[in-house]
Amino acid sequence: LLYTIKFEGSKMGDMTSFNIDNGYFEGLVRGYRSGILRRNDYHNLVECETLDDLKLHLQGTDYGPLLANDPSPLIVQTIDERLKERLVHEFTHIRNQCFQPLAQFLDYMTYGYMIDNIILLITGTLRNRPIAELLPRCHPLGRFDELATISIAQSPAELFNGVMVDTPLAPFFSECVQDENDLDEMNIEILRNKLYKAYLEDFYAFCQKLGGTTADVMCPILAFEADRRAITITINSFRTDLLKDDIENLYPKCGRLYPEGLKFLKNAEDRDEVRRICERFGVYKDLYNGVGDGPNDKTLEDKFFEEEVKMLALSFEQQFHFGVFYAFVKLKEQENRNIVWIAECISQKNKNKVDNYIPIF
Amino acid sequence: MTQCISQCRDLDMSKLLRSEEMTLVQIFLSQEASYNCVRELGELGAIQFSDLNEEVNAFSRNYVSEIRRTEEMERRLRFFAGEIERENLPIPADYNVPAAPNQKDLIDLEATLEQLEGETRQINANQEALLRNFYELKELKHVLNSASQFFQEGAAIQEEERTSQQPKYDEETGNVPRHLSFLCGVINRAKIPVFERVLWRASRGKALLRHMEIAEVLKDPATEEEIPKSTFIVYFQGEQLKMRVKKICEGLGATTYPCKEDWEERRQTESEVDKRLEELSSILLETKNHRFRMLNTVVSSINSWIIQVRKVKAIYYTMNKFKKTETGLLHAEGWCPKNALADIDRALKKGAAAAGSGVPPILNTVTTRRTPPTHHRVNKLTKGYQAIIDAYSVATYQEINPAIFTIITFPFLFGIMFGDIGHGFIMFLAGLYLVVKEAHFGKRIKSYEEIFTMMFHGRYIIMMNGLFAMWAGFLYNDIFSLSINIFGSAWTPDYDALTNGSVINKEGMYGLDPQDPNQYSGNPYPFGIDPFWNFSENKLTFINSYKMKMAVILGLVQMTFGLVLSLYNYRFKGKTLDIYCTFIPQMIFMQCLIGYLVFMIFYKWFAISAASPEQPSLLICLINMFLQFGAEIEFGSNLYPYQRYVQSALVVLAVICVPWMLGLKPLIEHCYPRISQASYAPIPQSYEQFDNEGEGGASEGDAEGEEEPHSMMDIMVHQGIETIEFTLGCISNTASYLRLWALSLAHAELSEVLWTMVMQAGLSMDINPYVNPIAIVITFAFWATLTIAILLVMEGLSAFLHALRLHWVEFQNKFYQGEGHKFSPFSFQRVLDGDDEEV
């Protein structure tokens, strides 16, 4: 018994042993968290007239001298880059020092960005864009050595055999190894969803294996992510000639909609049906509240983001788990989206929709 | 005559005791004069502006665009600093602080910076393009060079393949067969493994990669970072594979170069490349020189520019705190010391004159109920001690400032715990060195590391500590744990008896009898401990009793002094009630218990000698005073006649004090609320009167300073806590002062251990006449290092810490409130030192 307790303890750091390896990093990430902008910061940002005003205000926040070395007519792209740089800096600072299994957990977080980057590059090469132009647009958290050589791949199978086989993403390709279809837009989309499905399911299993509070916090978040993908896939597949079973194959199987909900979902024919299916599930009952095409209505995408932000923010209420790392990166991403959105509205002198950001705390 | 009087008033001692009298002032400035006026005030550094625009956003204040301009200038200056660092130019150390520029010069400076930045960036762009070209040519040259080797290897491989398989290739020595194509280039060395792996996978093992490290250091043309690179060659077959290889090269950032198979052609290209390289390097040299000259002009003035821009930024930050009035004037408000009013007025007039403004600045003093900030005037010596007090908490406005007494008591208590002439002297010398060289270090203080900076700021404290440690060392007669015999010991051992052993007792000791005039002269050693004790076996028992008693005496003196200071605070604030209900019972209580103990200590020293029949223990006496209240004192513990009655009276008195402290004040406040109210409001009600005169008055926060009538419950609880804290504290604080003894004992023992175990062992070594001196030198080095590291640094820190604690807790809790906020004037000096957090 003693042995099992010790093993459990060292395996996943519960209250007694979490801090041995991970306490410092949890402290760091909670410190970073307190730098996330508050509601009144956003109120002030929204009132800015120029991007220089925005810069001045950001100086008063945790961002401090973030933009100090950029000459004065600022452009939105610079802001976006600096914000990303900072997030990556904070993330790598933790990643470079931490121990297993946190390191593995953080790596899992980057896989999602890696998948996005792969898809970005493949789509880019399909449209004959030079790789040198595409590379800077890749998310820095998802960069890896082989990334740049993706353009040689013509089919998913080639992509796997030629490039991906040595990367940590290789297991996610298990369903695509035999796929010799040419990479056209549709196939790229299918590839992305297959990869994401495999990734999410694997990440979910990993969190379950970690157990403890991490599983308690992370599994609902990942389940939500899985359902979000399933719903999005369904909506995007309406006007395509995909077979129902093929669609079902793309749904990640770790969500709350699995298995019944997904069965209904694959047969859905229009948005209203999707809505009805969602409302049948307690968790997603309120999801469609306020969604619509009217001027004060929100898009479903924004609603999802809002819901996600709520869950992520709550994860900080518990201690001794890895969910805070995930939540921090995702919340910071949301914050970056918010700032960039506001900056975009300011630079285009169109403030009608400037309030469409999603406040975090 | 008047001068003399004002000088006398400056010397008034009570001014030192309390913080400066502050006053709230309003300043009305015309907009064109404001910059110059604030500039003068910044140089003066005597006024702390309050922010009148607190509710206004950072970017909608009056002078945002100006601040943005200064930030742009700072950015340019940072750019120059970076360029200068890249060029490895030394920035001359210039300790002159230039004045803030006036507005016209500022515009010139801005233009200069903009122009210089433009030019520098132009040169950089040129240089980068040239460098890129240059390194590309270099890479090509390396590719050509290594190509020969690659091809030779290639031939060898073919040779091998030919022998193992059928002859397949053409016979052309040194060159590759025609139908095998190849690609040469240069790649970042770190990417070779990936390159190899991807190539292998993508070609299914049908492409062959050879690579070679480039020994020469190649740099990134933009950042001039060194990047280790390798040349490579890839052999493959067929067009499709060629496309793939090209894509991989492109993806991994490898540059491919055209390379001919023919040796002759390669040589020709190489000589062309050499020629172009030569041309390029001369152009590059020219560009570099140009850049160097350019930066050299910046180097001489960059420090001065940085300071000027910082000052300007501080000015605009301050002006952002001002409010615009309807009449177009700027309204500023802030605290300043009363005696600086004239200086401020002068500075404002000077500023207005410099700006040529027709509207004279208006300076009004305002009466307010807001609590003024606490401002202590300090000099080089008192600064460190004031910092010690402020680190605990800043004094309430105009309460007695303990820093003044700390100047002496702090080193005194430190010395008691660190008493050793030798160690004290070394510490004194260290402090003295810093003090003597303070002008030298002071200028460069920013360039030193943190620990040295800390020591430098505490240089006077270190010096004083050393001095007092020496004094205490004389008291203890300790110098590196040895004693010195200055006045001649009072003890004379009977050496003859000692040699024949007749005086050695059963324990193998020789006891000296203080009552025997042959052995003890009867005149004690005039100052400090008799050196003879250093040889005695019972030295520790003797010294401990002495040091413990001294600790209690010093404790009582300092605590009583603290209580007396509380009397001064009550009197200053007009809290008569507190004098009768708090101060007097506290004083009686403390003197009845601890004061009586101290009295007994002195009495015993004077009245009890070795000849006395009774040798009472003071501790038992004090305990029995309570436990056997009123009982007859047994023989053997009687100090003086009627002791029993005196002690009983003291106990009764002390016990009466407890309800006195606890209940009287709440009772009076409850029955006569008006008396106590009046004593709480010493500030005259002239504010409303001022308000009626027009002119606005102080703008906000007046409610803060108003005293609310306390409820009965609050007073009871507060008084209860105070009483419990004091009565318990009386005992525990006295016990706490015993740390004086404990620390000094530890110090003495440690230094003795070090002496006997290290230095004495070395001195008594007897190996052979040639080795002995070396051994002594080595042991001395060892001993000296340990002395410095353990006894001076570590023990010094610990004694410092304990002295700090005794001041913060045991001394200051008797009188110190410490609820003030520090005066932080707008001053360029503080801005440049980085003390001002806002700018």
Overview of this structure, please?
The complex is a heterodimer of chains A (361) and B (839). By secondary structure, chain A is mainly alpha-helical. Chain A contains 15 helices and no strands. Chain A has helices at 2-12, 18-33, 39-46, 51-59, 76-97, 102-126, 131-134, 156-163, 185-210, 212-236, 244-250, 260-266, 271-280, 300-314, 323-347. In chain A, helix 6 runs antiparallel to helix 9 (185-210) and helix 14 packs across helix 15 (323-347). The relative contact order of chain A is 0.12. Chain B is built from 26 helices and eleven strands. In chain B, the strands form three sheets. In chain B, strands 1, 2, 9, 10 and 11 form a five-stranded antiparallel beta sheet that branches. In chain B, strands 4-7-3-8 form a four-stranded antiparallel beta sheet, sandwiched between helices. A two-stranded antiparallel ribbon of chain B has the order 5-6. Helices cover 61% and strands 7% of the residues of chain B. In chain B, helix 3 (31-44) packs across helix 8 (263-319), helix 4 packs across helix 5 and helix 11 packs across helix 24. The A-B interface holds A 44, 47-49, 52-53, 56-57, 59-60, 68-72, 131-132, 145-152, 161-163, 165-166 and B 57-60, 64, 67-68, 71-72, 74-75, 78-79, 191, 194, 197-198, 201-202, 244, 247-248, 250-253.
